[in-house]
Amino acid sequence: MIDSETRPVRFVYKQYVHQLLHAKLPTLPLWLRHGFAEYYSTFEVEGDEALVGLPIPAHRDALRGHLAPGGLRLEALIMQTGRTRDVGGPALYPLAWALTHYLGSDPVRARQMTTFAYQVVRDTPVEQAYAESFDFDLTELEERLITYLKGTNFKYTRAAIDRGVHPARVTRLAPHEALFYLGDLMAHTQPNRQEDAAAHFRGALQRAPGHGRSLAGLGYFAELAEDDVTASTYYQQAVAADSDHFLVQYLYGSSLAKSFGDRRPVNEEEQARLNLAVAALERSVEQWGNFAPAWSRLGYARNLQPEASQQAVEALENAHGLLPGRLDIAFNLLLAYARIDNREAAEAIVARMGFLGADDATLTRGREVLLTMDYRDAARLVRQDRLDDATHLFARILAQTTNPALQQQVEEQLGKLESTGQVLEFSKLYRNAINLLAERRFEAATEALQELEAIAQPGQQQNEVDKLSKTLAAMQK
């Protein structure tokens, strides 16, 4: 048997698979992510064949003490929705490898595993995804896996390599191109050597005056040093020299858009600058349609335009599709959805942000965006003279928001509506009850709910009280 464990390149393959899955499938279940990484880590080339899925004896040995009914703890592994590595029972990596190797060793099971992964990535609950993907329950799966691990026949794939499909070709770089690529590599991998990288750009310009990408590289360093005047000069020179290169247009447009921060243009001069940024970024994505940073910055710039646009959404959807693990892109896409009032898509993005590793502060910001959409809905209800519905929606927003500016806006709106005093009192007590539930102070929460019950009006307020009462009962079980 080929020894697949001692080759150092195995760890390179494993990390490559992790990077690929993180970029393309960030919400893949943890056991599948590690299972795929371990499975493909043993990739080997033997003559004109590729060997995929070679066994890892050390992982099999690590599971020997758990080959009894219930010993593998498969349910804890497969049904978990978090990212923790400690699921009880055997270590994560050997068990994830064994399960992936077993399922992948048969074409039917492999298709079922793929279906399961696809459904979970699309936010199907894990239990439902498993039931709809596999034709055996977890108990039978564990029995099959134990039998597989006790055996000696671990299947792997031999695939012929057609070496003529992608013939290698060596092209000699011109000296100025070599200097540019060295400088660019150094700029992005050794940030502590900016002077050395800039020297490479200057060396390229000595050999090829007007080399656009080298001018843009010097502009990039000036931008990092917050010397916006020098950066702008270099970028303009770069665009004039090489307007057809995606990187030149991206750096130029990105720099222009970055100058706005989170605010929109306030005068004609600023609007003209933003239009230049959008045009440059559009040129960048036209020149390379899979350059995710340009799509991301283009969506951001379009989001700064005075009017909401579907084009901003489309640019950010492209960026999110190429880099689904980037929280900043996901959040900007949320803002774009909010601007065009696509509530369903906005809620879906907020729901996915938790799977992407968003911290509490970021999740709170996401929920505040949804509350801002609620505020606009409530304002529309007022314009439609649906004052009672608007009042209840404003009250719910006031109970949930932590944004002082939004709180003030809601209070001002409620002040204009009838029954303001009752609504504000209900909102105050409602917020207090929610806080008490969050702190698990059940006795105090019960008293707060009694106060709410006493003043709640029929309809939406009573419904909210009923929901809180059910939540309290569930938490006390």
Describe, in plain words, how this protein is organized in 3D.
The chain is an all-alpha fold and 477 residues long. The chain folds into three domains: 152 residues, no CATH class; 166 residues, Alpha Horseshoe (Serine Threonine Protein Phosphatase 5, Tetratricopeptide repeat), CATH 1.25.40; 110 residues, no CATH class. The chain has a three-stranded antiparallel sheet with strand order 1-2-3, with no helix packed on it. Helix 12 packs antiparallel against helix 13 and helix 20 runs antiparallel to helix 21. The two termini are 55 Å apart. The relative contact order is 0.04.
Secondary structure layout:
Blueprint: H1 9-24, H2 30-40, E1 44-46, E2 49-52, H3 57-62, H4 74-78, H5 92-104, H6 107-121, H7 126-133, H8 138-150, E3 157-160, H9 175-189, H10 194-207, H11 212-224, H12 228-241, H13 246-258, H14 268-287, H15 292-303, H16 310-322, H17 327-339, H18 343-355, H19 360-383, H20 387-400, H21 404-415, H22 420-438, H23 442-455, H24 460-476
Antiparallel strand pairs: 1-2, 2-3
Helix pairs in contact: 1-2, 2-5, 5-6, 6-7, 9-10, 10-11, 11-12, 11-13, 12-13, 13-14, 13-15, 14-15, 15-16, 15-17, 16-17, 17-18, 17-19, 18-19, 19-20, 20-21, 20-22, 22-23, 22-24, 23-24
